């Protein structure tokens, strides 16, 4: 619900209750329409927007915008159309070894007719982008990559009948103020944490082809309009094979694919990633995890939920927890390995070194400092490594070490963590192995449960929770110019008080009337918080 509507509903409820209580002469206020000159002035002055397109009163565009708002509200009331969605070519993800920096990728179909792209998955950024009208892009020929058997594709906006450019006046256009004309295509630039790595171009909207895999759905396929980057220029790691055919940001920003699917009413505002020990995996949009999963809350950054940050209370080996090892960490599927704040890293690696019964060694070409010899493929006993969260939640890392192989088999192993160099850590893919990781943006929680990454469609066995209830060059870990976003868990409204109230004096409302007014305002406030969560995450 837009802020103006919250104000309007608040005033109307207040007036109706005060009239009922016999005090209609004590309260008055001017009602202002969402497309009035007053609202336009406030919007421009507060947001600093340039070239705001304001519909003319009672024009076709005027009624179109009102109808679109009503349709969005109806989708919210009816609930999601699908329990789960995944790319039309399947829910499986795949690793592609050294060529691609130890990341997970999957095929997606975009446009009409559909064209396939092999995109990297990154929970640390928001934007989906693909190579498009290339000025400076990575090679797309399969001959450049040992793990590919067919060429990669470049997106052509004019080749898709459902493609359209986003204008500079669009609400998702962050660089709109730099445009000379509000109707020109919206430019974008995303700089990533990895040195000199970026993508830039213009924003477009087109169809992302998805499937539900459910026999219960009237239609097992979905055509979802999504906004993404027509990436004409890439730099850094994106020119070196990290993401030659594009990247899907899964962050909480409004422009991300999970956000667009939820806002369109297709699925719940949540998704899951699963990484198996054989390096395969799955992704499901709308998945809120099984009922028995463990959870911890996402933490805001400067009051906003701009990435998936969690708070850890301690790090433990076996039953012994290391003192002073609490820290915050980003949960990021786009980071191949895990990073700890420097002081936490020092305490953890020293405790690991003390507990492991093996000879320390050094292996050329590997980034980790704490490595050990191994005389056979059978590892020495590795102490279990556990991350402790609040509310007694714990995350047992399935495999904290990285095996190193020679011509005769295993020659050693390393504790696969590195110092982050900053005060915040990163939980990367290697720590998520063996888990179904649920990014529940609706309830602002991270969930996890042991999993073999089974298919979650209804002809497979893994139950769902009720709808309510060798290259050190990893993928760039976090988008630096993440769109502003915030969110609050949905409130649960109670019953409205009975209309039967004792008679009251005209001059002064009774306590019952004031209580009713307060309760109605609280309900409006709860709905407002719920709306913020729905539309900004």
Descriptive notes:
The chain has 537 residues and is an alpha+beta fold. Helix content is 18%, strand content 28%. It is built from 7 helices and 27 strands. Strands 3-4-10-5-9-8 form a 6-stranded mixed barrel. A hairpin with a 2-residue loop joins strand 14 and strand 15. Helix 1 packs antiparallel against helix 7 (511-536). The protein starts with a helix and ends with a helix. Mean pLDDT is 76; it is low at 1-29, 44-51, 71-78 and 459-537.
Task: Write the SSE topology.
Blueprint: H1 3-20, H2 37-47, H3 60-78, E1 86-87, E2 92-95, E3 104-110, E4 115-122, E5 128-136, E6 164-165, E7 187-191, E8 198-211, E9 221-235, E10 247-249, H4 257-263, E11 270-275, E12 281-285, E13 294-297, E14 309-317, E15 320-321, E16 327-331, E17 338-340, H5 342-355, E18 360-361, E19 371-373, E20 385-389, E21 394-397, E22 401-406, E23 409-415, E24 417-419, E25 424-427, H6 429-432, E26 435-440, E27 445-450, H7 511-536
Parallel strand pairs: 4-10, 5-9, 16-25, 17-24
Antiparallel strand pairs: 1-8, 2-3, 2-12, 3-4, 3-8, 5-10, 6-8, 7-8, 8-9, 11-12, 11-26, 13-27, 14-15, 14-16, 14-20, 18-19, 19-23, 20-21, 22-23, 26-27
